[in-house]
Amino acid sequence: MSDVTGAVVAVSRNDAYTFTKPNRDAIVLVAGLGVEGDIHAGVTVRHRSRVAADPSQPNLRQVHLIQAELFDEVAGKGYEVPAGGLGENVTTRGIDLLSLPRGTILRFGTPTESTPTESASGDSASGDSASGDSVRGEAALVVGARGEVGLGARAEGEAAQNTTRPGTGGRGEARQGVDAPGEATRAGCAPGEAGAGAGAGAAAVSGRGETARTVSAPAEAVDAPGALDAVGVGVALAGVLEAATGAVLDAATGRAAAAVVGAVGRETGSGDGRAAVVVAGLRNPCAQINGFRPGLLKEVLGRDRGGETVRKAGVMGVVLRGGVVRPGDPVAVELPPGVREPLERV
């Protein structure tokens, strides 16, 4: 938990593909989907460049947030950018969004007490199976040697069990620590981004039968049947995580998906009913920004002294808990436990 707090300056949405989004009196976050009535809401990617590259990719860009301090900064250089001007859904103040670690949870509104969400079957979202049996331990997003991603579970002291699905071809077999045969494909990415197998850190493409590598994330409980149930995820986020298991993800997207799994595990049984978004990564600024304000792109996309890419056009997240968000709402920052890793583009 962190004592860092900020506030919502503006909220915006649009049901059509436009670069800017009009301000609203309020928006409604829908768990696992995004902003109700917004063109970018959905389980799989909705941004047009991503859809064109690979429409099966999971939508880890459901909500776009930008800190108002960026608009103050560029205003000093002659660029007038209103809230919603860069297409963000939530404009904040008082939080350095860009410095947040992957998997940070942002909670909107005044703290409230609630009980764990119940599924249609009456089971709580704490991860207990219908039979009441559960295996406490570690949930994992399993990435095969060919880039396949599956949701698996590792009980205390046991090897990871995983179900990996190749992006193209193959049988999608369930194995223990071994990827199913199949071929990797380039992950969907915007122009200028590296996909799987096309850059340092991308999932390796190699021969059949190689041991899968596992990106682990803590979970409250792990159920026996089914990969999704095994991670103890709530019904609401099952769709986007199922999309992650069915697509070939590049390395950065795989890490972002694993962070979402970790946030789901931490959220289980938390009792906090506020609307919440888990931060998955950075927006990758595109040339459309120069169409909005000529020359503005260079202010939000550049390189640091070490030659590393710097992206300043906000962060992208997945809705963890639904609810109404309004201008003036407080925003609480909940940092992930353990090693805190910097945001990458998603």
Automatic annotation (TrEMBL):
* Low complexity bias: start-end ranges: 110-134
Report the superkingdom from the record: Bacteria
Task: Return the Gene3D superfamilies for the record.
Answer: PK beta-barrel domain-like
Segments forming domain MOSC = 21-334
Q: Where is the signal peptide?
A: none
Which PANTHER family did the record assign? Answer: METAL-SULFUR CLUSTER BIOSYNTHESIS PROTEINS YUAD-RELATED, MOSC DOMAIN-CONTAINING PROTEIN
What is the designated name of this protein?
MOSC domain-containing protein
